[in-house]
Design goal:
Strand order of the largest sheet: 3-2-4-1-5
Largest sheet: 5 strands, parallel
Number of domains: 2
Bound molecules: S-adenosylmethionine
Helix content: 25-40%
Order of helices and strands: EHEHEHHEHEHEHEEEHEEHEH
Distance between the termini: 51 Å
Shape: elongated
Number of strands: 12
Structural class: alpha/beta
Strand content: 15-25%
CATH topology of the largest domain: Methyltransferase, Cobalt-precorrin-4 Transmethylase, Domain 2
CATH superfamily of the largest domain: Tetrapyrrole methylase, C-terminal domain
Number of helices: 10
């Protein structure tokens, strides 16, 4: 029997590929990894379109109860659905390696990812540096990693894609991420992320997207609407990239 790792795209129930859909329709078990990204539609809508019951796999299930998913794949056709692409941003390498060790047959069905959908902005994908993320700050946990990554990428003239935190009941907005970075700037004072820094806010790429390019002071108050959101800090711009960014100003 086979464990099928299937990317289901960025927007709605119809973004799954024909190949992926055919597998889901025939699968004995269908898991949906639902803690690293979300579609614009409900799980019920997916179930209706796939004509299958979906088992939600939260972080606990995927990271600590991997055996449960693997056990099912030993004897049954099991589909493990990932929003976006299977190994993009969220790697799921652990699940893949453990399945390999157990000699479970694995089938991968790729799809679009946020890592490439940002190409719509006109920024060259080849010129993105390290991708980073911003988690919701907690009382004793206020990481400054994103600030350092922006700094390092800027030094090399590279663009930075920043992915934003998802919690069961909330999704970080562009505005929240800007405030967090401004707070770090206030503390560090290294002139990396100031009111004058040019950024791009992106929402719902692959669907009814909204993209806005401007200074922090402008974008701080912009309403990007429903999730998912991400933030991009452009590096050194080629004149074609500059022309493309004008569209979003
Ligand atoms: C950890 S990544 C998951 C990547 C996913 N496996 C993929 O390939 O797209 C999830 C983050 O990417 C960003 N993101 C995902 N989909 C998006 C979309 N359609 N538009 C804007 N940002 C998105 C959000 O910041 C979200 O928290």
């Amino acid at each position: 029997m086979t464990l099928h790792l299937i990317g289901i795209g960025l927007n709605d129930e119809k973004d799954i590929s024909v190949k992926g859909l055919n597998i889901v329709k025939k699968a004995d078990f269908v898991f949906l990894e639902n803690y690293t990204s979300r579609l614009q539609v409900s799980v019920e809508k997916l179930e209706e379109f796939y004509e299958k019951k979906i088992i939600l796999a939260d972080r606990e299930t995927v990271e600590r109860k991997t055996d449960l998913i693997l056990e099912k794949s030993l004897n049954k056709e099991t589909a493990f659905l990932v929003v976006g692409d299977v190994f993009s941003a969220t790697t799921h390498t652990d699940l893949f390696l453990r399945a390999k060790k157990k000699k479970i047959s694995i089938n991968i069905v790729n799809n679009a990812s946020i890592l490439t959908a940002v190409g719509i902005t006109g920024l060259e994908l080849y010129k993105f540096g390290k991708t980073t993320s911003i988690p919701y700050p907690e009382k004793n946990y206020k990481p400054e990693t994103a600030y350092d990554v922006i700094k390092n990428n800027k030094e090399l003239g590279l663009h930075t894609l920043i992915l934003l935190d998802i919690k069961p009941n909330k999704n970080m907005t562009v505005n929240e991420s800007i405030r967090i970075l401004l707070d770090i700037e206030k503390k560090r004072k290294e002139n990396i992320f100031t009111e004058k820094t040019m950024v791009l806010g992106c929402a719902r790429l692959g669907g009814d997207y909204k993209i806005k390019c401007g200074t922090i002071s402008k974008l701080e108050k912009e309403d990007f609407g429903k999730p998912m959101h991400c933030l991009i800090i452009p590096g050194k711009l080629h004149f074609i990239e500059e022309e493309a960014l004008d569209i979003w100003k």
